[in-house]
């Protein structure tokens, strides 16, 4: 299928879906919006009502420069789940759709919705939303409605990293760093932006720690003392992981 036809189909599909979504959540009838990149939450609110959604950022369209940028390519945004839009890029590579693989490119006032429709089709969501500030359009896939308490819980579990700001926590042994290869053993297979179950955390340790861990038949006081696990942000975690690849 040619890109143009594929894009048209995706737009049609989202249109139908989005109508129901807007009706169901009454999203047109909130006066204000606020989004928080660290917790990836969007709040819509008026004087006496509010609603919260978890979101995945799709990308931004600059009205000044008339250019689109995919969120995975945006180094200024800190949302962990922006890397889920790499699924769109992968799809584009298979199909040879340049708009899905290039980091940024020129467009018009329909570009943002077109690419958001495609992301919606590939990644999935309950609806989409766009906000505009300072001539910058930012597009979201909304993945679920959540409560204020859930938002507060997500925010309370973030760590403030001196380099990267407020992000999810990760645990590493004292030997891991982003300058030398030390080996990188993980509690489970991870990738950037992945969703974690409530009881899971990013956890990694070096090859020496792995030897200790095996010696003690799994983590115990002795091997934990050797590892001296400390806390870093998830961005630091993946920088270290990449050093070791
Ligand atoms: Zn170690
Ligand atoms: Zn960090």
At a glance:
This protein is an alpha+beta fold.
What would your notes on this structure say?
InterPro entries: DUF6882 (IPR049249). Pfam families: DUF6882 (PF21813). The chain is of the alpha+beta class. The protein has two domains: 149 residues, no CATH class; 87 residues, no CATH class. The chain contains eight helices and twelve strands. The strands form two sheets. Strands 1, 2, 3, 4, 5, 6 and 7 form a seven-stranded antiparallel beta sheet that branches. Strands 8, 9, 10, 11 and 12 form a five-stranded mixed beta sheet that branches. Strand 6 and strand 7 form a beta hairpin. The longest helix has 23 residues. The protein is globular, with a radius of gyration of 21 Å. The mean pLDDT is 95. It binds zinc ion (2 copies).
Task: Give the helices and strands, then pairings.
Blueprint: H1 3-25, E1 32-36, E2 41-46, E3 49-62, E4 67-70, H2 86-95, H3 98-101, E5 104-106, H4 111-123, E6 127-133, E7 136-146, H5 148-156, E8 158-161, E9 165-172, E10 185-186, E11 202-205, H6 207-215, H7 221-227, E12 230-233, H8 234-243
Parallel strand pairs: 9-11
Antiparallel strand pairs: 1-2, 2-3, 3-4, 3-7, 4-5, 6-7, 8-9, 9-12, 10-11
Helix pairs in contact: 1-4, 6-7
| Number of E-type strands | 12
Beta-strand content: 25-35%
Shape, please?
globular
Which hetero ligands occur in this complex?
zinc ion
- What's the overall average pLDDT, rounded? 95
How many helices? 8
- The separation of the N and C termini measures 37 Å
- What integer value in Å does the Rg equal? 21 Å
Q: Structural class, from secondary structure content?
A: alpha+beta
H-E string: HEEEEHHEHEEHEEEEHHEH
- Helicity range: 25-40%
Runs in which pLDDT lies below 50 for 5 or more consecutive residues are none
Largest sheet: 7 strands, antiparallel
Number of domains: 2
């Amino acid at each position: 299928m040619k890109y143009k036809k594929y894009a048209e189909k995706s737009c049609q599909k989202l249109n139908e879906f989005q109508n129901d979504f807007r009706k169901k959540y009454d999203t047109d009838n909130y006066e204000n919006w606020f989004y928080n990149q660290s917790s990836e939450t969007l709040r819509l609110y008026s004087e006496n009502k509010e609603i919260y959604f978890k979101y995945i950022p799709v990308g931004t369209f600059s009205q000044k420069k008339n250019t689109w940028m995919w969120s995975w390519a945006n180094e200024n945004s800190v949302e962990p789940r922006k890397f889920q839009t790499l699924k769109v890029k992968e799809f584009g590579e298979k199909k040879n759709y340049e708009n899905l693989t290039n980091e940024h490119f020129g467009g018009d006032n329909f570009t943002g919705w077109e690419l958001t429709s495609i992301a919606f089709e590939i990644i999935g969501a309950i609806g989409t939303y766009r906000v505009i500030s300072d001539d910058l359009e930012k597009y979201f896939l909304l993945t679920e409605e959540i409560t204020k308490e859930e938002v507060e819980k997500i925010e309370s579990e973030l760590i403030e990293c001196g380099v990267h700001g407020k992000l999810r926590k990760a645990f590493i042994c004292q030997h891991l760093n982003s300058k030398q290869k030390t080996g990188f053993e993980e509690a489970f297979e991870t990738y950037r932006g992945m969703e974690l179950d409530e009881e899971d955390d990013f956890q990694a340790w070096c090859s020496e720690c792995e030897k200790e861990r095996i010696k003690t038949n799994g983590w115990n006081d002795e091997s934990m003392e050797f590892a001296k696990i400390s806390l870093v942000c998830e961005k630091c975690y993946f920088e270290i992981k990449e050093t070791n690849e």
